[in-house]
Amino acid sequence: MNREYLENKNTIHFQFEQNKEDFIVDEIPLAFKGNGNFAILHVKKVELTTWDMIAAFAEFLNISAEKIGYAGLKDKHATTTQYISVEAKYEKQLKRFKHPQIKILNSTRHTHSIRMGDLAGNHFSINLFGVSPIEAGQIEKRAAKIAKNGLPNYFGYQRFGRDEDSIEQAREMIAGELHINDAKLKKFLISIYQSYYFNEWLHERVVLSRNKNEGKFLLLEGDIYLTQDGKLFTPKNIVQKDFEAHKVVPTGLLCGRDVYRARAKAGEIEAKYDDAFLYDKGLRREAVIFPTDIKLDYKNNFDILNISFMLPKGSYATVFLEAIANNNFRAKRLTSKTTK
Q1: Most buried residue, 71, 97, 133, 332, by CB count within 10 Å?
Q2: Residue 337 has pLDDT above 80, yes or no
Q3: How many CB atoms lie within 10 A of CB 229?
Q4: pLDDT over 90 at 281, yes or no
Q5: Which residue has the higher pLDDT, 158 or 4?
Q6: Contacts of 142 (CB under 8 A, 6+ apart)
Q7: Is the confidence at residue 163, as pLDDT, over 70?
């Protein structure tokens, strides 16, 4: 599964490694009330999955993991901060919490538990290795252009597993050729199936944009857009100015039931990557996102470039790096700083 980007320029060969020193992720929360029956913990974890971190809190408090709220899953091979919620009655007990890979940074209160998706986005700080001074300048220019014109919002390679074998499992399960009892695994495989066809749809739209619109995402009649306040709509005319002003973005289909589908020319392309018989609920996902707060710090003597930026929730930092490099990354390539 290949991810194409809006500008087909030369490849920049840098490396990065997902580890606690070189890959930092900070969750950007929605506003908290400062009062209520739930304690909101700002937590730092090092080289742990979100599930492992939640399990540690659940064991310490002697409660079910389901009673701990969280907004999203964060990388294991990184240093990350995020917010979790528990009932306020556990605040006193949590003062005694200690774990070698987890630290409670601070806390506040809120009126309800944190739910999946309750975040504004994520801030990333990533070290890129093997970057020459000329390449540092190229990276800065490409990052700025992507911030202006938009980044195709692919699901990153992490979504599909090291060898992408989960895609085939998902197809077999949905076709009735593979029976799976585990409800969580079923849900996971269905999301893989939806994500795969979204990426395939986006690939076609990106190639079309590159060929027909000089590297800017091409809007089509019948596209469904997402507004800044989270509403979906299909306009009578193409809303080019609003898109360029980052007020609306076109969306792609995560196939399933009870979801709006594109029409006209946009619908013709979308239909190739649809499965109207999939029983699970469908969704719309932004086709394009706009990275913000981009900063670069080049350590000339060491050929290291630190790049920091913010992305909306559900988006992948590695996709932004792929677009800058004009190169697809895979999990196997990221095991060593010296591997190209």
Answers
A1: 71
A2: no
A3: 5
A4: yes
A5: 4
A6: 7, 9, 12, 323, 324
A7: no
Average pLDDT in the chain: 94
Q: Which of 75, 118, 223, 280 is catalytic?
A: 75
Cα of 273 vs its chain's centroid, Å: 21
Per-residue pLDDT, 339: 34
Structure tokens at 136: 């540092």
Kindly report the backbone phi and psi dihedral angles of residue 266, in degrees, each rounded to the nearest multiple of 5, phi listed first.
Answer: -60, -40
**Beta carbons within 8 Å of 140's beta carbon, 6+ residues apart:** 296
pLDDT of residue 16: 95
75 in active site? yes
Phi, psi (deg, nearest 5) at residue 173: -65, -45
For residue 23, give both structure tokens: 């890959």
Contact by Cβ (8 Å): 210, 149: no
Instruction: Say what the pLDDT of residue 110 is.
Output: 98
Q: Which domains does the chain have, with CATH numbers?
A: 31-117 (3.30.2350.20), 152-289 (3.30.2340.10)
Share of the chain above pLDDT 70, in %: 96
102 and 41 Cβ atoms separated by less than 8 Å: no
Residue 20: partners with Cβ closer than 8 Å, 6 or more residues away: 46, 47, 77, 78, 79
Per-residue DSSP letter, 92: H
Q: Ramachandran region of residue 263, left (φ > 0), alpha (ψ -120 to 50) or beta?
A: beta
In angstroms, the CA 184 to CA 336 distance is 32
pLDDT surpassing 70 at residue 216: yes
The pairing of beta strand 38-46 with beta strand 79-87: antiparallel
Gap between the Cα atoms of 222 and 216, Å rounded: 18
